[in-house]
Amino acid sequence: MYRKCMASSLTRRCISSSTRTSTTWWDHVNPASKDPITGVTEAFLADPNPNRINLGMGAYRDDEGKSVVLQCVRDAEAKIAGSEFLESISTSVSSKLVEESLKLVYGKDSNVISEGRPAGVEALSGTGACRLFAEFQKRYYPESQIYLTNPTWSNHHNIWRDAHVPWRTFRYYNPNTRGLNFAALMDDIKNALDSSFFLLHPCAHNPTGVDPTEEQWREISYLFKVKNHFPIFDMAYQGFASGHLDIDAKAIRIFVEDGHLIGCAQSFAKNMGLYGHRVGCLSVLCSDQKQGVAVKSQLQQIARAMYGSPPVHGLLLVSTILSNSDIKSLWLREVKVMASRIKSIRSALRDNLESLGSPLNWEHITNQVGMFCFSGLTPDQVKLLAREFHIYMTHDGRISMAGVTSGNVSYLANAIHQVTSCQQETLNLSPKAECKRPT
């Protein structure tokens, strides 16, 4: 039999051309479980029904259900048109982005900024900022863990898990009141090991839409001080809770006023509509400028090994919007318009449900804030909404309020009314079936 032989000074290897087979390197790799939000969107897109509604994706839509390019973004695009996206400008653009982002977090006249205490770096939106911090935490506190709210955005678990940081949950949401379980939250913070890491949502909590009051934030901050915990804030929705960026940063500023060192992951995906550009910022507040310089250098080194540096086009857009007074003023007005639409559609959904004579209390729809409403719908009811009414949301009943419009709110309310007013044994109703209220 013909053999092709290869030799070296160290080895001699003969390969038979007649028995050569391909190596099955990846046979042991199984398909990953689907992301719950991506799965909702896929089911929605596969449904040909004209009345279908996607309430899963947390991206802002206008009242016609269309994605929005903000006018401030268009104006910024015009400003940077013709720019040469060269390496030589990336450093200055990144510095401007970080400088302006820090003002949104800590306040434009904040002493901590003038003292040079925040270590800030650009990041790949909020997800990248969280992941960068998780890697930093693992490097300098290798035995630590992180506490996540129960529930939290599903990807938070993945981010810290893949950074090999163990996570635990602390109580946050009360399903009975569909509000904050403040007493349990404080109890879990108190009972956590001293000097623990906690991930907090400063505004528009995802997925519940439930935020602590200002007074409750002050109590949380005080207890963190007693326990010497470290808070990392994931600020993905600044502006969407109240319509005012300073109000939505109040929780962070309370912690800073109380003398905490903090971390903050910022995203401009939602409040600028720049989902595809992946622009964000991570800042870590340090004791002094010297410590800030050291921390920043380490964050940059971690980022360089993870992804190098972000694309410069998105950085230019955001830095232009934030540093140009006229365009920034326009952006602030547009943020308020988006927040106002979310608030008004919350009221419309509640009003529609109540006008249908629903036996349930729907006050939580308007008590909760931001992009999401934790509806209280059960997994069975969510499945029924998809099967019978072509309405799609995550299995936990989280509604993306941006997917609700003046054109579909009545249809949505009627569908929710039917599935929540039916006895469990009638869950096989057809779309036109009468659903008697429970007695």
What does this 3D model show about the protein?
- This protein is α/β, with parallel strands linked by helices and 439 residues long.
- The protein folds into two domains: 36-58 and 341-426, Aspartate Aminotransferase, domain 1, CATH 3.90.1150; 71-323, Type I PLP-dependent aspartate aminotransferase-like (Major domain) (Aspartate Aminotransferase, domain 2, 3-Layer(aba) Sandwich), CATH 3.40.640.10.
- Helices cover 45% and strands 14% of the residues.
- It has 16 helices and 15 strands.
- The strands form five sheets. The chain has a seven-stranded mixed beta sheet with strand order 4-12-11-10-9-5-6, with helices on both faces. A two-stranded antiparallel sheet has the order 1-2. The protein has a two-stranded parallel ribbon with strand order 3-14.
- Strand 9, helix 8 (214-227) and strand 10 form a beta-alpha-beta unit.
- Helix 2 (71-80) runs antiparallel to helix 13, helix 7 runs parallel beside helix 8 (214-227) and helix 15 packs across helix 16 (409-421).
- Mean pLDDT is 89; it is low at 1-19, 423-428 and 430-439.
* The level-1 CATH class of the largest domain: Alpha Beta
| Count of β-strands | 15
Query: How confident overall, as mean pLDDT?
Result: 89
**Secondary structure tally, helices:** 16
Gyration radius, in Å: 25 Å
Pick out the low-confidence regions: 1-19, 423-428, 430-439
**Fraction of helical residues:** 40-55%
Number of domains: 2
* Spatial order of strands in the largest sheet: 4-12-11-10-9-5-6
